[in-house]
């Protein structure tokens, strides 16, 4: 249990240290080290959970079970590798004169603030605190979206702030309704604890829970980027610094989905109907299809991949909504591989934009000729995210398709169509970027591609053979979420 | 059910709900920013009074702390910060011409009816206070959204945002006797940070587009041109 406290305390220290000490030459390296230690702590935590099962802290404030522990490790891992990339990237931005040292301090302080909020969302046992931490994640990142202070970035940050703030207020209303239902069965002080709620799920008033779930889905769904609540997402991803896009796509969206799934588990237990699942399937499928179509109409490379994130989040929401052990297993796997691949892509996209000096895809050409490593990284990343074998995204999408064919065969053509459209949308833009003729004056930059290789390597590994400890883990989580073993 | 036959507490809370809802309608039709902020502060004051009343009646002292937090944040800090911004930018004399004021008011009224419709299923499980409090709070949330849609000034958007928080707080307080203290403190902290960030944003927006009219922020599109 001490690991959780250490993890949270470390991030708090990080925030305070970056905010209150003077400018450091090695500020980026320091951030990397903090994240490395966090990763170590989470692995320690994971092994403990693996050996002893679910942990509940003394004051019942924190709950670590097989579902959230792997997300905690994933969060720490992506946080660490992104910080590896962010150190040279931000140093380069300073050299270009896009940032001042004061803003760099803000950036690193809020990087830790964001990590703290993410860890708190995942570890807390109290769904009220989960809401507070989710809102905290918005507050921590909103100033980072506008870090460059261009009119576009300020517009993006304002949209992000207002839309996510208003959206998540709906989730608070849902939480209040749930609390209202839960406090009727006694013990109001503990009525918001997940452990207590799950225990008494069958006693909760199903009518209130149905209404509450609609609000919770809309609220956290805004953060997942479900269509039609997704407007903030491409803007925030494209205008902020690239490392931020990587962690937003790789972590924030996952954790918001985690919140929805936790609530779905509860509502399923109480209502014994599939209404929550149908809602998630509907929202998920619409997001998946609409985002796939929007891929074709993008001109900015970061916007392109943020629509791809919406598409994949839609697919995961759909799979979790479908329920059942196979779909849930596939969704968990997809969450992992999507995080890995998407953050790797954003890292290469960051380098690409620095090489070309622009994010406009029409002006980026001949990447392989300029800097082969970055070009290949982008190409392989795109291949992976489009769902080609042998990468892990293929495996998970295939499993989702299998589950769909089994449960709702008439939806399979829609899924296949969406995957096809998304594939075309990505490649019509990426192919000329990678292979085209190199424009005048484009030269290689200093790039750190280790995070990319590690992420893509892991995604490849997960596509070829899922290691047994990981599949055990997913099975345990599947059992927890769907109630049936694979 | 006749309201005169209810006890004093029920009557008082029901009147408070009505007043809180009324404030949202007043904000909706308000084109002048200083008055808009004043109405917002009055809504905060009503919430403070409700918290004190509920704390006294239900004998739960932690609602007094909520009352104090609400008073400090929603009556003093946020309105005065917004007021200062409005005067600093010299837009306190501007009257925003609200398009389709009648339509906005009518849709506001329909939203309130809609809230009753949404919460209809729980009518059997709750007392009159709780049902009405939940309905008023939901309609304050929806009216806050409508306020943001119908106004163009960034300050009005922040008022809408914060009045949504007011609506949620009202539900938490009356229907459920206050959320657990740690959650309530967390929410108050978020609201405080959000208010400070809004202040920073006003400055940024003004330096970048030289106005606080959010319609002028139109550079980013879903499908790029």
Keywords:
heterodimer, A: 486 residues, mainly alpha, two-stranded antiparallel ribbon, globular, B: 225 residues
Structure description:
The complex is a heterodimer of chains A (486) and B (225). By secondary structure, chain A is mainly α. In chain A, 77% of the residues lie in helices and 1% in strands. In chain A, helix 4 runs antiparallel to helix 5 (127-145) and helix 8 (206-224) runs antiparallel to helix 10. Chain A is globular. The model of chain A has no long low-confidence stretch (mean pLDDT 91). Chain B is built from 7 helices and no strands. The radius of gyration of chain B is 18 Å and the shape is globular. At the A-B interface, helix 5, helix 6, helix 8 and helix 9 of A face helix 5, helix 6 and helix 7 of B.
Tell me the strand percentage band of chain A: under 5%
Main sheet strand line-up of chain A: 1-2
Share of β-strand residues of chain B: under 5%
State the helix count of chain B: 7
**Low-confidence runs of at least 5 consecutive residues of chain A:** none
Kindly state the percentage of residues in helix of chain B.
over 70%
Q: What's the story with the biggest beta sheet of chain B?
A: none
In summary, what is this structure?
The complex is a heterodimer of chains A (486) and B (225). Chain A is mainly α and 486 residues long.
Topology:
The complex is a heterodimer of chains A (486) and B (225).
Chain A: H1 2-20, H2 27-52, E1 55-56, E2 63-64, H3 66-95, H4 101-123, H5 127-145, H6 151-183, H7 194-199, H8 206-224, H9 232-239, H10 242-271, H11 275-294, H12 301-322, H13 325-356, H14 367-370, H15 372-385, H16 392-407, H17 412-435, H18 450-464, H19 468-482
Antiparallel strand pairs in A: 1-2
Chain B: H1 8-28, H2 33-57, H3 62-88, H4 101-119, H5 128-150, H6 154-176, H7 181-209
């Amino acid at each position: 249990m001490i690991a959780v406290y250490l993890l949270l305390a470390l991030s708090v220290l990080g925030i305070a240290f970056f905010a209150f000490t003077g400018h450091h030459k090695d500020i980026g390296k320091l951030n990397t080290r903090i994240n490395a230690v966090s990763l170590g702590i989470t692995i320690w935590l994971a092994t403990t959970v693996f050996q002893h099962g679910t942990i509940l802290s003394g004051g019942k404030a924190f709950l670590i079970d097989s579902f959230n522990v792997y997300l905690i490790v994933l969060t720490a891992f992506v946080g660490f590798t992104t910080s590896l990339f962010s150190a040279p990237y931000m140093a380069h931005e300073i050299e270009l004169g896009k940032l001042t040292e004061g803003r760099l301090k803000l950036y690193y302080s809020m990087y830790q603030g964001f990590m703290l909020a993410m860890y708190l969302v995942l570890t807390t046992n109290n769904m009220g605190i989960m809401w507070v931490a989710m809102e905290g994640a918005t507050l921590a990142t909103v100033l980072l979206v506008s870090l460059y202070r261009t009119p576009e970035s300020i517009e993006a940050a304002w949209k992000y702030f207002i839309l996510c703030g208003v959206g998540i207020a709906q989730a608070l209303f849902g939480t209040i309704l749930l609390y209202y239902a839960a406090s009727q069965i006694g013990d109001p002080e503990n009525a918001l604890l997940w452990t207590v709620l799950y225990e008494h799920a069958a006693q909760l008033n199903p009518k209130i829970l149905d209404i509450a779930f609609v609000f919770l889905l809309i609220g956290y769904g805004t953060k997942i980027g479900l269509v039609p609540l997704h407007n903030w997402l491409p803007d925030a991803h494209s205008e902020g610094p690239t490392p931020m896009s990587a962690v937003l796509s790789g972590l924030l969206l996952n954790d918001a989905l985690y919140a929805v799934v936790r609530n779905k588990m509860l509502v399923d237990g109480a209502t014994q109907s599939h209404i929550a699942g149908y809602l998630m399937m509907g929202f998920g499928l619409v997001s998946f299809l609409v985002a796939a179509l929007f891929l074709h109409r993008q001109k900015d490379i970061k916007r392109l991949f943020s629509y791809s994130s919406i598409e994949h989040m839609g697919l995961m929401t759909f799979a979790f909504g479908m329920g059942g052990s196979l779909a849930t297993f596939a969704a968990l796997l997809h969450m992992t591989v999507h995080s890995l691949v998407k953050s790797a892509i954003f890292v290469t996209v960051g380098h690409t934009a620095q090489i070309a000096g622009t994010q406009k895809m029409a002006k980026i050409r001949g990447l392989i000729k300029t800097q082969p490593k970055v070009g290949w990284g982008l190409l392989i990343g795109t291949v992976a995210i489009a769902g080609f074998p042998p990468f892990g995204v293929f495996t998970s999408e295939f499993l989702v398709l299998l589950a769909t064919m089994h449960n709702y065969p008439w939806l399979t053509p829609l899924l296949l169509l969406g995957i096809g459209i998304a594939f075309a949308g990505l490649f019509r833009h990426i192919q000329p970027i990678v292979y085209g003729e190199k424009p005048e004056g484009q030269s290689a930059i200093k790039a750190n591609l280790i995070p990319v290789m590690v992420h893509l390597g892991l995604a490849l590994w997960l596509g070829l053979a899922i290691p047994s400890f990981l599949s055990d883990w997913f099975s345990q989580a599947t059992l927890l979420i769907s109630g049936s073993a694979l | 059910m006749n309201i005169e036959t209810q006890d004093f507490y029920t009557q008082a809370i029901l009147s408070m709900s009505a007043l809180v809802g009324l404030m949202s309608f007043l904000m909706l039709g308000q084109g002048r920013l200083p008055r808009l902020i004043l109405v917002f502060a009055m809504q905060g004051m009503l919430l403070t009074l409700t918290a004190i009343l509920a704390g006294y009646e239900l004998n739960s002292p932690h609602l007094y702390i909520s009352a104090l937090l609400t008073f400090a944040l929603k009556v003093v800090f946020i309105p005065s910060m917004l007021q200062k911004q409005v005067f600093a930018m010299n837009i306190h004399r501007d009257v925003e011409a609200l398009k389709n004021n009648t339509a906005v008011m009518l849709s506001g009224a329909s939203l309130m009816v809609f809230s009753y419709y949404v919460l209809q299923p729980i009518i059997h499980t709750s007392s009159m206070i709780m049902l009405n409090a939940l309905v008023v709070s939901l309609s304050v949330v929806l009216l806050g959204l409508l306020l943001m849609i119908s106004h163009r000034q960034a300050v009005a958007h922040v008022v809408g945002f914060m009045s949504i928080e007011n609506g949620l707080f009202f539900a938490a307080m009356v229907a459920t006797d206050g959320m657990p203290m740690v959650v309530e403190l967390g929410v108050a902290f978020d609201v405080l940070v959000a208010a400070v960030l809004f202040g920073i944003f006003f400055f940024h927006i003004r330096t970048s587009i030289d106005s606080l009219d959010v319609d002028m922020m139109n550079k980013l599109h879903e499908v790029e041109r």
